[in-house]
Design goal:
The protein is an alpha+beta fold. The protein folds into 4 domains: 7-176, Endonuclease, Chain A (2-Layer Sandwich), CATH 3.30.870.10; 180-343, Endonuclease Chain A (Endonuclease, Chain A); 355-448, Immunoglobulin-like, CATH 2.60.40; 650-829, no CATH class. The protein has an 8-stranded mixed beta sheet. Strands 17-20-21-15-16-19-18 form a 7-stranded mixed beta sheet. The protein starts with 17 loop residues before the first strand and ends with a helix. It comes from Paraburkholderia terrae. This is PLD phosphodiesterase domain-containing protein.
Amino acid sequence: MKQRTPLYQHVKGKDFHTALASTYGIDFEAWENVALPRLQSTGCRNVLLLTDAGMMTHAMNGASTLPRKGGRSYTVNAISAPRVFHPKLTLLVGRASARLIVASANITAPGLAGNLEIAGIIDATPDLPSETSLVASALRFLRSRLEGQGSVVEHQLGRMDRQAGWLADADPADDLVLMQDGSAAQFLGSDRERGIGARFVQNVGPERVKRLIVLSPYWDSDLSALQSLIDALNPQQTVLLVDVRRKLFPTHGLTHRSGIGVVDIGTAARSSFVHAKLIIAETDDADHVLYGSTNCTTAALGTGTFRGLNDEASLYRRLSPATIAEQLEIGALVDSRPVPFDELPPQLLTENLKFDSLRAGQPGAFEVRDEILYWHTGNRVIAERVNVELFQLDNAPLSTTLVPLPSPASDVRRFRIEGDAPAFARLLFPDGTRSALACVTIANDIYALARESKGTSAEKAIERLTGSSRVDVYLLEAIQALALAESDAAVEHADSVADGKRTQDESEPDVAPETYQILSYQDFVRDARAHRVRGGEAPSQFADSGLWHVEQLLNRSIGMASHRTVKIEAEPDAAELQRLFRRGDETADPERKLNANGKSRTAVETGVADDVDDPMKEAELRQRFTSDRLSAIEAHHKYLWDLRKRKQVSATDVLRLRAILMLIATAASGKTPTDMLSEHDLNPRSRLILPVAGEQGWPRLMLNQLGAFFGTKNAPIEFLEIKTQESSLPSDILECWATCVWALHASHSAVDRYEERDDMRKLGSRFRILPQQVYHMLGMSIEQFAAEAFTRTYDCLVRHFALPMDIDPAEMQSRHERFLAGASHAQNQTSIT
C-alpha cells in the first residue's frame, strides 16, 4: 500500500488566516497539542472547531481531557443533526488561497496519526474558478451548520469573508466541475435534497461498471446501502476491502448474495485500525471515486429514494481509467484472492452510544461579551427555574454571580457577570439533574487572537499595549502606528483590485458592501431614532483592527476589562507527538508581577526611578513627565482644529479623543496648584501633575478638548462617519461618548467646587452652552444612553477617579441624570440638523 503521511502534517496555517475543522469524535488533547499549534504558530488564528453535539457531550463527560484553550484560542461549536454530525473537513482560508481537506479521520490521536485513513486535498486560488467553486461548496456546507452558534462565530465568519472576499464572492458548485488537471470533481454534502450515494450513482451515469470497490469500517447489518449501490450500478464484480480480524463486518449479510468478494486489508494495514472510507466504480472510460466521511451505511449514503440521516461530506472525483488503484498502490490488494465465506468471522456486536440522550445533554452555546454572558438555548424549551453553573479552567466551581438581564430574543438569555469570566458552564435543572459541561467563548480573547498585525511598528505597538494597563503618552503613538498600518492595508488592497486580483469593485478594504454601510454620525443616530432602536449596541468598530488593543487598554485602566493574553503554543516535539499518538482503534503573564521593591513594570515606562533618595532627580523626572504629557495634550488640541478644516473624521479620531481625555484624567489631582506641589514634596513619586485649577488645570484641558470637538462651528463630530452593519451604536463608540460625558461633568463639578477663584469663574462661563452642545451633538436617545457599554464605562470612570480627583460619585450621577432629562425634552422638540 501507499506510504502513509499522518493527516496532521497537512494541517499547516502558513498563508491562511482562518481554519474551520469539522469532526465527529473529538480528542481535545490531540487537537490542542498537535493540530491547533500547527495552525496558530504559523499565523492561522481565526479558528472554528465543529463537532457532533452528542460526541461533545461524550467528550466533556470524561471521554476526553477537558479543553484548556476552547473558547479562548478557538470557538467550540456543538452541531446537532437528525442522527449524527459526521463530516471530517478542514478548510483553510487565506487572502489569496484556500485549502480544502476532505478526509475520513476524526480529530483524535488515532485519526490524526494512528489509523489508516484517506484524505484528498483541493487547493484553490482566485485564478482557479473550478477549484474555488468546490471550496465554496464546502464553505457553504459548514457555514449552514454554524447558524445559531452566537455572535462571536458570526464575527469569525465575517472576518474570514472580509479577508478573503475572492472566496466569499465565489458561487458554490452544485454540479460537476472540470479541474485544471483535466479531471472532474464534485463536493457532496448532506445539505442537498438527494443523498450522497444517489448523486455518486448519477455521476457514474450509464457507463458499464466493471468493478465496484468498497472500503468501509462500518456497514449496515443487512448490507442495504451496499445492495443499493449494486442495484444501481450493476457491476460485473464487487470487491469489499475489510479488516477481517476486527470482526466489524456483518458476515451474515452476505448470505444469498453472489458476485461479492471480501478481501482482507488487515495484513496490509499492519497494526493500524482501518478507518478509511472509499468507493471506486471502475469503467472503461473513467475511475469514479468517492471518499470522505461516508461509511457504507444507509444512514450515511442513503439510497435511491432516501437521502440518509447523518450529516456527511465527501468528494467525488472522476479520474482517468485504471489510475486510482495505482495511485493508492492497492492494485495487488484488490486483485488478490477473496477470503472464503466460511472463513469470515461472525460480526462482533458492540453496544452503541445512546445518541439521543447524548444530544439532550448539550446545554447550548455560551459566550461572554463585555462582561455579559449570553446563553444561546438553541430554540429548545427551557424552564425558567434552570440555573447556570460556572466553572474555572480546572473545573472547580466559580463563585461568579450572574444577574439576569432582559433578553433580545426568545432563544437567548443574558446575564451580567459579577466576578471572573468562566471557562465552562452547565445547566442545573429543577429536578436536580445536570447537563454536560460546555466551553464558554470569551469574545475578546477570540477577537484579539484572530486580529492580524501588519508591519513592525504595529506589532511593537500591540505588544506594548497588551503588556500594560497604564495610560501614557505612548498610547497616542500606538494609535498612530496602528492607524497607519490599517491605511497601508487599504492601499495594498486597492492595488490588488486594480491589478485584477479581485473581481468585485470595492471602495473599502476587507468590507463586504452588501452588509456594511458608511453613514455620517448625524444620519446614523437619526435613523436609529426613526427606527426606535432600543438600548442595544453593535459590535466594536475596532473588532477587526489593531486599534482594538487601545480600546482594551483604556478599559483595563479603569477596571472594565480583565488583563489576559492568549498564548500561542509552539508545535510539539517528537517525544510529545509519540506520547499523544498512542495507536488505537477509533472505537477504542498578565500584568507583570511586582518586583521586590513593590514597583510594577510601568515604573520604567513612565520614568519613575526605583531610587527616591535623590529629590532633584525625582523632580527632573516628574518635570519631563509633565512636559511630555502637556505637549501631547496641546498637539491633540491643534489636531482637532485641523479636523475642522479637513472635514473628515473617523472612528479612530473618536478613539484618539477618548485616549487624550484619559491621559488628562490619569494625571489629574483634586488639589489646587499650591497643595499639589506640597503633595509632591511628601510623595516624590506622584504623577498627579495636573491641578484642579490654573493654566495647567485638568478641567481647563478637558474643556478645551471637548469644546474643539463638540462646540465649535464646523465641529469635527459633524463630519464623523460610522461604518457598521448594525442599527445600534457600536460599543466602542458608546465607550468614547461615555468618557466625553464623564469628563464634561467632572470638569463642571470641579469648577463649581472652586467657584470662588477668578480663573474658575471664568472657566465656568463655558458651561452656559457646552453641556447642551455635547448632548445635542451626540443626539442619542434615552435608551441609547442606557446601553450597557455607555453606563458601564461612565460608572467605572466615576468610581476610578473619585478619590484622586476628589469628585463625589453621587454628584456625578445626578449631573448626568439632569442633562438626560433635558436631552429627552429637547429630542421631543427637534432632531439633529
